[in-house]
Structures are given as structure tokens and as C-alpha cells.
Amino acid sequence: MVSSTNFIEKTSMYNKSFFNHLFFIICLSSLFIKCDFSNQSSDFKNFAIKDTSNISKFRISDTEGNEILISRDNSSRNWMIYGTSFNANQPSVDLLMETFYRIRVKQEVPNSALNTVINRLSVRHKKVEIFTTEELPFKTWYIGSPTQDHTGTYMLLQIGKEKGNKPYVTYKPGMYGTLEVRFFTDWKAWRSPRIFDYKNPKNIHKISTTFFEIKNESYSINYQNNKVELYNFQNQKLSNFDTSQVKHYLTHFNTISYNKIIFENQKIIDSIFNSSPYISFELIDNKNLNTKVDFWRIKDENTSTGWDVEYGYIRVNDNNELLRAQYFNWEILFKPLSFFAR
């Protein structure tokens, strides 16, 4: 497991090392591409991947020294940010899989523009390496700038170790715009914001909801074999409650996400973490995975309640990371024990 703090530090060190050699890398990549254009005879234009289910990972890098590797975990089949414990954002993965499958060549680059496009690709491009089962990329895309009318993107294809001898204008049918913006290297943008994502509540074994200001509204729910048990804050089993409401409550632990990673002074973060949360949740699923979330309200003197009405702060699994959460997404979980009473 790699904490977010360590990951940020590693990312910073990584970028610094690339910065020191940036000029060398750009010159080398420029020379490499130009040499391949002049020496290779292969005309590659089949950019698409027919069966994206065979893709095991893909690496995105650019000529500024940024890089990210997204890989599929063999056991869970989840897409992960390589080298971390973070899931990749599934909509972003799905968007690239669709692009890998549906990309087409729109036209050849006109001879009048060929040298300009090659030179620009040499100096500035994004490199996308697509892996199946081998360590060697199955296909590699060199993605350049958009066409002037923004209906196509200049790209060069490499298959295995052999690079094509000329770029093409590519596009995705039904899409207006450039493909280049879909391929980014920022780990914060790639990281999945999901905290709770249980589409099937039957995968939940236990939930504990704690109200720190009103202790007697705290409770825990056990769920097994389609039967629910409700316990009060003193861990006493209750017999008179609305079973359907309790089961319905479990369905809300789906698509619950953080809104933003907060990069703040450590003293400020410590002061928040050392204060009492407003509410906390602890979920144990059927695979015995434990997820604990503390939620703090944010002070705002400009509101009638004295609290921010839109956002709160959260901490997941006692990590040293401050996240922002939106009430619109989270407030549905703030059900007190009395809500389930008959």
C-alpha cells in the first residue's frame, strides 16, 4: 500500500529528475522520430484495437517528462494507478477504451503540410503505449496537435518495435474535437474519487454510523442472508424498526465520492483531524474490506447556521490526507437512528 503523501513525494522527485534532463530527452526523441520517418518503409494506419478486453495496461507519457501507467489488477479486474493503492477513474478508462476501439483514419496528411506535421510531432507529442499480454507494447500511438478545423488529430502509429513512416489525421466517428485531450498524465485527475461504490447492497456486511454530538442517534447495521439487524449506540439489538428503510439505507452506499483533494498546511490539516468529527461511517464488506470515513463540517460565518452549506471535509481510513466532500452527494447517508423507528 502506498500512501497519497508518499505518492506525491515520489511524483515530485520523478518530475524533478525529468526536469534536469528535459532538453536532452526532447532532442533525443526528436532525432529518434525523424530518423524513423526517413528510414522505415512501413505504412501503418490501423490504429484501432479490435478487442479492448485484451488490454492489460496502458502508459501515457509526454515530451515534458510526465508519465502515468494504468494497469488492470489480475484478481479484482479493477483498473489501478500503477505503484499506488488508488483505483483509476472508471469513466476515464472507459473513454480511452472506446477511443482505442473506435479510432479511424480520416485522411492522409497533405504533402504540403507533411514536413511541418513531422517536425511538430518530433518536438511535442503524447506517447500512448498499449499493452496486451507482452511486456512489449502491442501498439504505440504518437499523438500530436489537432488539425486547424479541430475535426482531426495528427498521429503516428508504431506496432511492436516497428514505427510507421508517416503520420495520419485520425478521428473518432461521431465526435467533434481533438483526441489529444483524452490522454493526460495528472494522477489527481486519473484517481477515482469513489469512497463507497457498492452497487449491490448484498455485498455489504456491516455499517456503523456515529453521530458525535448526539450519541443516542448512532447505530450499526448487520446485513446477512437478506436479513438486517439494527443495534443502538450501546450495541443493544433492536426489535422494533422499519426493516425496509434500513435495507434502503444500504443502497445509498453507492457512487459516494470525494469532491477534491485539499493540499493545505500540515498544521491546518492536523487541527482538523484532532477535532471531533460531525459524523463517521465504518463499512465492512463481505470480503472483509474495512472503509472508515470521518466527516467534519466547515465553519462559515456568512451562513445562518455558521457552517458551510455545500461542502465538508473527510478523512478516509485515518490517512494523512484531507478531502473535500459535497453535501449533495453525502447527506443521504446522514440518517439518524430515529429515522428507522416505527
Q: What is the compact description of this entry?
A:
With 342 residues, the chain is an alpha+beta fold. It has helices at 4-20, 22-39, 90-102, 111-123, 187-190, 243-250, 266-273, 327-330, and strands at residues 57-62, 67-72, 79-81, 104-108, 126-131, 139-146, 153-159, 162-163, 168-171, 194-196, 204-211, 219-224, 227-232, 237-238, 256-257, 260-262, 279-285, 290-299, 307-316, 322-326.
Global structural class: alpha+beta
Quick check: average pLDDT? 89
Biggest sheet character: 9 strands, antiparallel
Oligomer: single chain
Number of helices: 8
Q: How many domains, as an integer?
A: 2
One letter per element, helices H and strands E, the order comes to HHEEEHEHEEEEEHEEEEEHEEHEEEEH
